[in-house]
Design goal:
Blueprint: H1 2-32, H2 44-51, H3 55-67, E1 71-73, E2 79-81, H4 86-110, H5 113-132, H6 135-152, H7 156-174, H8 180-198, H9 202-223
Antiparallel strand pairs: 1-2
């Protein structure tokens, strides 16, 4: 009887944990896709209705995102999407430049056939979305593209740190994609970056990523 109760408790914990993770992932993606703007308040009630859950897992997911700096405490116990001053964005992007450049360098050094295929596939999604002018699809594809480079490092710790920076700045970066031309400019920049990574010249790949991130930073500042 005790063993059965323990197993039931473990199953309940796993179910709750997966629900919290699902809510956390959905909100992170929505922010990176520009569906939630910097400073926008998060509606707990709508989230409970959307996911068909109580407020407990919703609040746990929101607490996780606050801890990551993706959300910040708002008024009346609520939370809202993080928004940054120009100085704060500059500081965050300074750190992003370093970790993104490191990821590109290591990816070039350790490039495998599978990594090539994944990066090419992600870029194809970016180009398709850019050429069709589908902003929402491009924002999602853009995040996926960078994730393939992180995975290509073969280092989950580097990938985790890089992802945290992207998630934290997702709402601010999304604002720079205001026109179809912005999407195409970004997608073509990816193509240049890929050629450097695929050359397996780690220094060139690192420099290329720095240039890519510098362009991203300038566009993000202009949009915010």
């Amino acid at each position: 009887m005790g063993a059965m109760a323990k197993t039931s408790d473990q199953a309940l914990g796993m179910t709750r944990g997966s629900t919290v993770g699902r809510i956390e992932a959905a909100l992170t993606q929505a922010i990176s896709a520009g569906e939630l703007a910097p400073g926008e308040r998060i509606d707990e009630v709508k989230l409970t209705e959307r996911f068909g859950v109580s407020r407990t897992p919703v609040r746990e997911a929101l607490s996780r995102l606050v801890a990551q700096g993706i959300l910040i405490p708002g008024e009346k116990r609520g939370v809202r999407v993080a928004e940054y001053t120009r100085e704060q964005l500059a500081q965050i992007f300074e750190a992003m430049h370093e970790i993104e450049a490191a990821c590109a360098r290591v990816a070039a050094q350790r490039l495998t056939l599978l990594a090539r295929v994944e990066i090419e596939g992600a870029q194809a999604e970016c180009m398709a979305a850019a050429e069709s002018g589908d902003r929402s699809a491009y924002l999602k594809a853009n995040e996926a593209f960078h994730l393939t480079i992180y995975r290509a490092t073969g280092n989950p710790y580097m990938a985790e740190i890089a992802s945290e920076f992207r998630n934290r700045t997702g709402a601010a970066r999304a604002k720079k994609f205001a026109t179809p031309e912005d999407l195409l400019t970004s997608a073509h920049s990816h193509a240049d970056l890929i050629s450097l990574i695929f050359s397996e010249d780690s220094d060139a790949a690192s420099d290329g990523m720095r240039a890519h991130m510098a362009q991203s930073f300038r566009a993000t500042l202009a949009a915010n």
